[in-house]
Design goal:
The chain has ten helices and ten strands. By secondary structure, it is of the alpha+beta class. Strands 3, 4, 5, 6, 7 and 8 form a six-stranded antiparallel beta sheet that branches. The longest helix has 35 residues. The protein is globular, with a radius of gyration of 25 Å.
Length: 375
C-alpha cells in the first residue's frame, strides 16, 4: 500500500491518543451498509492486567539548559527561512544552500506540481533547507558545480510506488535556474531586523528569552505526550483482548473508510480512480483500514474496562472543552460538522467522541497512578 495513503489512514483513525468505549455501549443501527454492533460490556472481552501503578521510563531529556536553548534558537531561525544571500559565493558546492527556480519536464512538457520558484535547497541533504522535506533521489545532483545565474538540468527517476501513477517509475528532467547561494543564519549571526520581522522581538537577548519559553512549553507538551504513550503501551501489554464485540470491527472499518473519503474530498464514483492513481487497490486499502481499526478497538476495550472498574464517568464541562479543542484543530465551524467527521450522522459521531473522551479519562487515571522515571 502506498505509504502516503497508509499514513493518512492512520491520521484519520484516532482523536488524541486513545479510542472509545462506554460502560455499556449500544451503537445505532445505520443505513447505507453499516454493520449492527450488539450491546456489550468491555469486561466481557478483556482480561485486565496491571494498570494501576505501572512503571515507565522516559528515555529523553526535557531540559531547557543553555545548550538546548541555543540549539533551539538556531532551529527557530532556520524554520523562519534563516538564510541570506552570500554574494561571495558564485559556484554551487556539494554542501551549499542554494536558492533556485525549477521546472519539472516529462517528454518535453511541464507536469503538474513540478514547478516552483524562490526555493531554498540544502544540496548535501537533498531537501528543502527550511522545512527539511526531502526530494526524490538525484534531484539536486545537477546543481553541483553550477554558477550563479546559470540554467542546469537534473535527470531523475521517480520511485515505482510514487503517489502519482503518471509519474511513478518515470524519468523526468528538472530544469533549474540558480538565483544565488546562501549562508545560513544562526543565533550568533542573525540581526535584529530579522528577529523583529519573524519573532516580534527587539534584541538577541529578548529572542533568547522567547526561545527558552517556547522550548520549555514544547518540552512539557512532549513529556506529557510521551508519558501518556508509554503508560498506554504498558497497560495494553499487561492486558489481553480475548475477542471483539460482534459487528464492531466491520462497523468501525466502514466508518473510518467513509471518514477518510470525506476528509480528503473523494466522491464514491472517484474512489477506484483515486486508489489506482495512488498505486493501491481497494483490497489493500480495506486491509490497512481493518488493521488500524483492530488496533484502535483493542485500546478502546482495555481502557473502557478500566473506566468501568474504576467507575470513571465523563463530565459534561470537560467534554465540551474537549470538543471545543477538537473543533479548533479540525477547523470545524460548529459541533455537528465535527461530529459528522466521526460517524455516519452527527448523533453517532457525538457518541463516538463521548466514548473517546471517557477512554482518555481512563488513560489519565492510569498516568496519574503510574511511576514515571526520568532520564
Amino acid at each position: 500500500m502506498n505509504k502516503r495513503i497508509a499514513a493518512m489512514v492512520l491520521a484519520a483513525s484516532f482523536v488524541l491518543t486513545a479510542g472509545c468505549g462506554n460502560t455499556s455501549q449500544k451503537t445505532e443501527k445505520k443505513s447505507s451498509g453499516d454493520a449492527t454492533a450488539t450491546e456489550y460490556k468491555a469486561g466481557d472481552y478483556v482480561t485486565l492486567g496491571k494498570y494501576k501503578g505501572v512503571t515507565v521510563t522516559l528515555t529523553k531529556s526535557y531540559k531547557a539548559d543553555d545548550a538546548a536553548v541555543k540549539d533551539y534558537e538556531d532551529t527557530l531561525i532556520t524554520n523562519a527561512g534563516g538564510f541570506m544571500k552570500d554574494s561571495s559565493q558564485t559556484t554551487v558546492q556539494k554542501d551549499s544552500i542554494v536558492n533556485v527556480d525549477y521546472k519539472g519536464m516529462k517528454d518535453g512538457v511541464a507536469f503538474d506540481g513540478g514547478t516552483a520558484s524562490d526555493v531554498t535547497i540544502d544540496v548535501a541533504n537533498n531537501q528543502d533547507a527550511s522545512s527539511g522535506s526531502g526530494y526524490i533521489d538525484g534531484f539536486t545532483d545537477g546543481l553541483v558545480g553550477a554558477k550563479v545565474g546559470e540554467a542546469v538540468d537534473s535527470k531523475v527517476t521517480f520511485p515505482e510506488d510514487y503517489q502519482s501513477a503518471e509519474l511513478a517509475g518515470q524519468e523526468v528532467t528538472f530544469e533549474f535556474k540558480v538565483n544565488y547561494i546562501c549562508k545560513k543564519l544562526t543565533a550568533d549571526s542573525v540581526d535584529d531586523d530579522f528577529l523583529k520581522k519573524n519573532f516580534h522581538v527587539d534584541s538577541k537577548d529578548a529572542f533568547s528569552d522567547y526561545a527558552k519559553k517556547k522550548l520549555e512549553e514544547n518540552n512539557e507538551s512532549e513529556k506529557t505526550s510521551d508519558t501518556r504513550q508509554l503508560v498506554m503501551d504498558a497497560v495494553n501489554k499487561n492486558s489481553k483482548v480475548k475477542s471483539f464485540p460482534k459487528g464492531l470491527i466491520a462497523e468501525r472499518t466502514q466508518n473510518l473508510k467513509k471518514q477518510y473519503m470525506t476528509q480528503n474530498g473523494i466522491a464514491q464514483d472517484q474512489w477506484k480512480d483515486f486508489l489506482e492513481q495512488n498505486g493501491t487497490t481497494e483490497e489493500k486499502f480495506d486491509e490497512q483500514v481493518k488493521k488500524t481499526v483492530e488496533n484502535n478497538v483493542t485500546t478502546e476495550l482495555i481502557f473502557t474496562a478500566i473506566a468501568d472498574k474504576e467507575n470513571i464517568k465523563p463530565d459534561e464541562s470537560g467534554f465540551k472543552s474537549y470538543v471545543s479543542n477538537l473543533m479548533s484543530s479540525a477547523g470545524s465551524s460548529d459541533e455537528n460538522s465535527l461530529y459528522k467527521q466521526y460517524g455516519t450522522s452527527a448523533s453517532s459521531g457525538k457518541t463516538y467522541l463521548q466514548m473517546i473522551y471517557r477512554v482518555n479519562k481512563a488513560l489519565e487515571f492510569c498516568v496519574d497512578n503510574a511511576t514515571v522515571k526520568e532520564k
